[in-house]
Amino acid sequence: MMFNQEMKSKLGEMLDGASIFITGGTGSFGKRFVQHVLENFSPRKLIIFSRDELKQYEMAQRFSVEEYPCLRYFLGDVRDVNRLRVAMRNVDYVIHAAALKQVPAAEYNPTECIRTNVLGTENLVTVAVEAGVKKMIALSTDKAANPINLYGASKLASDKIMVAGNSLSGADGCRYSVVRYGNVVGSRGSVVPFFQKLIDEKADALPITDDRMTRFWITLDDGVRFVLTSLVSMKGGEVFVPKIPSMRMTDLAEFMAPDMPTKIIGIRPGEKLHETMITIDDARHTYDLGDRYVICPEFPFWQKEWMREGKPVGEGFQYASDTNTEWLDLDGFNEIMSKSS
Fold first, then answer.
1. pLDDT category, 94, cuts 50, 70, 90?
2. Which long-range contacts (CB under 8 A, 24 or more apart) does 9-15 make?
């Protein structure tokens, strides 16, 4: 998990001596984020905010307060605005990773999904203004672009709340931005550990919902790096999208178990054949920054500072997993798996 020296220096100037608050801090991303910050920077406080006491206990066995005095483990829920007011006092930077993200569960429990993903984000935006937070960045998903399921729709609403927060906080208030990326290799509840479990159990076949299906892929480490570099460069209101490879689900099954058959089980409720991270309509205000894209707000009064730093992607551009120009082959898949272990 390395940055170039210039970027690490910029991050050090921001994070050394700062108070950092991460929601969903005991999840897959949260644990890797905490590890990275502890290994590379010296924050005054690193507050891990989540609602599961068992996960906090387990995480504290790995990252103890005795070894890392900057750590604070806060039990709480983003739905509880009063608890957030207590937990976010004197915080400089917020990383918002808490979400209900299982697509079928969200379809069956829509109000629970909305309370966490939409109202929880609204609570954070409100409290960040009150607490004098400098910057807040939220993790989104490719499912938020042209959503067809409730999870994606709730994250789109969350993204819009984050962008609009910049208007509410005023010229000198908290800046809010979003990062949007695809499937995280090896994260809890994702397909890779599910397939591996079936392989270890010597199942008859690996289930594929549709043999045409494609997805974007990113490692946890790359996700953490992307969030941190976006935190440095954000001006407020952007949605940052990394340039990452696609892979067919049939290729994933073949790479993981070349001698194991697959079976088509049909698309689950709320599932897409392919994912999109930048839609054709978003393309009108999207800029190419080299290693990533940035989607700027549509508000006519917004100063599009990124026009000076990036180049427009052009009319008709779309960033989708099936039309992506970068694809994972077996060597590429093995490389990202080795990085994720």
1. very high
2. 10/232, 11/40, 11/41, 11/228, 11/229, 11/231, 11/232, 12/40, 12/41, 14/93, 14/231, 14/232, 15/41, 15/42, 15/43, 15/93
